[in-house]
Amino acid sequence: MRLLILGCGNVGRRLALALATGVPGLGGTDVVGVCTRRHGALINPGGIDLASIAAPGAVPPWSPGHPDSTELDSATAVSTLDFDVLVELSILSISARGEPAASYVRRALERGRHVVTANKGPLAFHGRRLLELAHANGVRLLFESTVMDGTPVFSLVREGLRGCRVTSVEGILNSTSGLVLDALERGAAMEAAIRAAQQAGFAEADPTHDLEGWDSAAKLAVMANAWMGADLSPLDVSRRGILEISVQEAQGARDRNRTWKLVCRAGIESGVVRASVKPTLLPREDPLAACGPTDCILTIGTDCLSPFAIRQFEPGLADTAYGVLNDLLTIADARE
Amino acid sequence: MRLLILGCGNVGRRLALALATGVPGLGGTDVVGVCTRRHGALINPGGIDLASIAAPGAVPPWSPGHPDSTELDSATAVSTLDFDVLVELSILSISARGEPAASYVRRALERGRHVVTANKGPLAFHGRRLLELAHANGVRLLFESTVMDGTPVFSLVREGLRGCRVTSVEGILNSTSGLVLDALERGAAMEAAIRAAQQAGFAEADPTHDLEGWDSAAKLAVMANAWMGADLSPLDVSRRGILEISVQEAQGARDRNRTWKLVCRAGIESGVVRASVKPTLLPREDPLAACGPTDCILTIGTDCLSPFAIRQFEPGLADTAYGVLNDLLTIADARE
């Protein structure tokens, strides 16, 4: 199986490391291209030496002396290279409405290639059309790592809820917000709480994306589009972030045996899918409140069986890379 | 697809009702036989009229005047009838070590037929050999409903944890015990607590099977055999039930902000799979303690990603029937 990888941050490098080490079921998998947005690309139809991607310190930009180094941009690579699976690992852009990743995914599907994406953008902004396109072209579009990293969520619904209709989802899906809310409840000021979340390795240098609820809104849009036949974008999600919560409000919650969580909800109301993200004051005994500061949790309601929840404990980067691997194994198994 | 169903209790009747109503993806599915242990059988190679199984009040024994009524026993049916999938829905027998169900499952697999079982016995007592037999004969042996009813557990591990090794499971898997422990904590005597669980429709007429931990031990054995390559039986599980807990102990827990749960654990220690069921006094903040009296929860640890838990809220009989349907859909989809 020949992979074309777009993006080479932590997840891409971990993926390369796993492939270099050898993944049973993915034997004979070659990475024929790795393209970054601003740091160049490597192309080798015979398979790039994975050590040059995965080795500690081998972060792009790669040396111009690298035998596979090229000026090829991502768009040209997706349109012209010979590959079996596009692996899209670049960063979500809300302001660019999921582009350019969405266009790369569309182009690959149009060319009859499978796609695995850990980037929420394509599914969050164009989920319905892309899924229809994949179906029409007889290829897979898989995105396990877009929600709760690699914890099985999409594969669970796909394989474990056959014949069911998902009617509602409710959850807590952003660790940075959880960590900041927890610090506020303990009496920290907003700025200090954010800094602590950054030091803990959760919050990005610019954490507004998480704290304003965009990350959660994008995840909700992916699920609504994938499971409820919706055609939502993150801009359609009713959204409030956590920045407006004061330390006074946060501390008061604890005194009243309650806790703030950034709660995501989507459901079908009178045939229309509605989705919201908002800070919510939960009683301690609420199933969502049991979730630790950095944990994520998702409750799924269906028309087939009792609701159930899946909770991820202390997620890490390895989880995201694993989700991509699971998607690749799903494709590889079906090709056998 | 032609089904031979063994057992016709609540789950079998609900399954028949679903098939009679029509399940997308299972069109063209016929039930060619329904055999009960003591209440006769119906056989019709052209497909039994499902209304005669599913109609309210149509519980076996069926009228001898039923056009499909026969004296054929289960063993002969499994060995001689022409069917594609054996659906084993009879009751677990610990004293008979999973028999006769295990032999029926073995015989069907030997004949190259797929098997779906909601009965824990075959997998709990002979999981490893039966799974090897299914593999050797190129057929599926599926058992989603054996743990947490139809909540996706086995399909989750099968499809969502490709390439992972399950290294530990921990959970609360028996609603009757949960309900009784909750009543004890509230001050009820053991007998009254059991009666209340029976009235709530959870406990069986003879609830010792649940209260002595056999149901939990069987579920642990199924998971250990399916996921950890173990060759355990419920008799190998270190087991204590809840009958020895006194009201004093139970009430005392609540005063100390703790709660009793019948906790199941299995894990690999020095290469050996060990499993235990025992009443455990948990701090309220323990993830397992958050589970309501009738809820089930299962935490899964792997070598690939952070541990995660799946929690089922207020399970019902419909869930068990759905798990069987999901297994049948899995087989039907692969036959296409």
The biggest beta sheet of chain A is recorded as:
7 strands, mixed
SSE class of chain A: alpha/beta
Supply Rg of chain A.
20 Å
User: DSSP helix count of chain A?
Assistant: 12
Biggest chain pair interface? A-B, 43 and 43 residues
User: How many extended strands of chain A?
Assistant: 13
How would the global form of chain A be characterised? globular
What kind of oligomer do you see? Answer: homodimer
Estimate the mean pLDDT confidence of chain A. 94
Q: N-to-C SSE series of chain A?
A: EHEEHEHEHEHEHEHHHHEHEEEEH
The N- to C-terminal Cα distance of chain A equals: 11 Å
Give the low-confidence spans of chain A.
Answer: none
Strand content of chain A: 15-25%
Order of strands in the sheet with most strands of chain A: 4-3-2-1-5-6-7
The helix fraction of chain A, in percent, is: 25-40%
What would you note in describing this structure?
2 copies of one chain form a homodimer. Chain A is of the alpha/beta class. Chain A contains 12 helices and 13 strands. In chain A, the strands form 2 sheets. Chain A has a 7-stranded mixed sheet with strand order 4-3-2-1-5-6-7, with helices on both faces. In chain A, helix 1 (10-21) crosses helix 12 (317-335) and helix 3 (74-80) packs parallel to helix 4. The longest helix of chain A is centred in the C-terminal third of the chain and has 19 residues, at 317-335. Chain A binds chain B through residues 23-25, 144, 149-153, 155-156, 158-164, 287, 290, 299, 304-316, 318-319, 322-323, 325-326, 329-330, 333, and chain B through 23-25, 144, 149-153, 155-156, 158-164, 287, 290, 299, 304-316, 318-319, 322-323, 325-326, 329-330, 333. Strand 13 of chain A pairs antiparallel with strand 13 (308-312) of chain B.
